[in-house]
Amino acid sequence: MVIRRMFLCFVLVMTGSVVLADSWLPISTVDAPTARAAHSAVFTRIDGTDHMIVWGGQDSPMIPFANTGARWTRSTDTWAATTTTNAPSGREGHPAVWTGHEMLVWGGDDGLNFLNTGGRYDPVTDTWRSTSLTGAPDGRFGHSFIWTGDRLIVWGGAIGFGGDVNTGAIYDPFEDSWSPTTTVGAPSARDGHTSIWTGSQMLVWGGISLGNYVNDGAFYDPRTDTWTPISTTNAPSPRLFFASGWDSTNLFIWGGVDSRFRPLGNGKLFNTRTGIWRTISKTNAPTPRLGATCVWSGKEFIVWGGSDANGNPIGTGAKYNPATNSWTTITTTGAPAPRSSQTAIWDGSRMVIWGGSGECCNNWFNDGFAYTP
How far is it, in rounded angstroms, from Cα 76 to Cα 56? Predict the structure, then answer.
């Protein structure tokens, strides 16, 4: 019995509590941001202390959207509000990245317009600085937003309803300057695609291009400002609102909807070293859905939440192991209420789900839950 407990559990040294594997624990809602969806969240480690920063999103049926947020400290399970002084205007659907000392946000929409403004938030000083407008890309939504280690790449997205682009720019936070990316050899204009950083190149795949779902993609090398297409042989079928992730070798694509808005329960892995697509097993996979979140744990892709074709939120998920091509169902005991448009981050040992919306895009949440795989 003692051996079994040692195998199933690990000890959180900071709190002294014992946490079972495959289990959920709620995080505090005291001083948490207002309930919202379509917000951003990043994981940070500052002076050895782990934090999650939540910002922006839709927190009411009316505009303007939120330009508020808060920083959650894992060790104390406490929230501290982020300042709104010099913060970007309220928005939803904006991406965010952590640069190592700042959170960068850019783009999204404010309910009336697609935005080409952004900001840089320093959690140590609780201050915002705006990003330059000089040379910035057109305002957009559903774009790539990739941190390379010293630069930010913005690419693609929608600049208006039905108006996709294949343009982009690289932002240098040290110089607060933008430089355009080439369109020579670039993928077709699109939004709703996924993108990851391989360590030397940005990989873009899928999305919707001027009304057509696509299943092609390309590598972008910022050192040479060049694009290289990837194979479409055995690629996933065209889809939108799919879950995606990156394990340092494979791009993970799963779920979403097809062009007839039918939820999908299949996916593929793209090996960035070999350029080959591999089919993901369907055995024990999550039910078909769109808008699920996905994080990489270091061993498994964890897929959770989302909604069905009728907009009904889902509160289930599963873990996919690429080494064994197998799925394991996640417990629903203590899990968050079913939701979509939530954020998910990996904090080093757990997936943390926060916020999102319930049935029919109403009933926003301001709670969060940590899942230990």
Answer: 23
Alpha helices in 253-345 (DSSP H): none
DSSP string, 214-248: ---EEEEETTTTEEEE---TTPPPP-BS-EEEE-S
* Half-sphere exposure at residue 256, Cβ-oriented, CA atoms within 13 angstroms: 25
Q: How big is the CA angle at 96 (ends 263 and 209), to the nearest 5 degrees?
A: 45
Residue 362 has what pLDDT?
Answer: 63
Whole-Å CA distances, 319 to 9, 28, 296: 18, 25, 9
- CB contact at 8 A, 66 and 83: no
Residues of the chain falling short of pLDDT 70: 1-18, 161-162, 360-362
- Residue 348 sits at the vertex; the CA angle it makes with 27 and 99, to the nearest 5 degrees, is 100
State the pTM of this model: 0.94
What pLDDT, in 10s, does the model give residues 269-315? 999 999 999 999 999 999 999 999 999 999 999 999 999 999 999 99
Predicted confidence at residue 342, as pLDDT, reads 97
Domains and CATH numbers, the chain: 239-373 (2.120.10.80)
Local structure of residue 4 (DSSP, 8 states) = H
Return the closest-CA partner of residue 229 out of 205, 199, 253, 200: 205
Query: Does 313 sit behind a cis peptide bond, omega within 30 degrees of 0 on the bond before it?
Result: no
Q: Residue 164's pLDDT is what?
A: 95
DSSP 145: E
pLDDT of residue 361: 59
Whose CA is closest to 55, among 22, 23, 96?
Answer: 96
Nearest to 197 by CA among 216, 177, 215, 223: 223
Amino acid at 119: G
| 270 vs 307: CA distance, rounded Å | 25
Cα angle 112, 127, 106 (rounded to 5 degrees) comes to 35
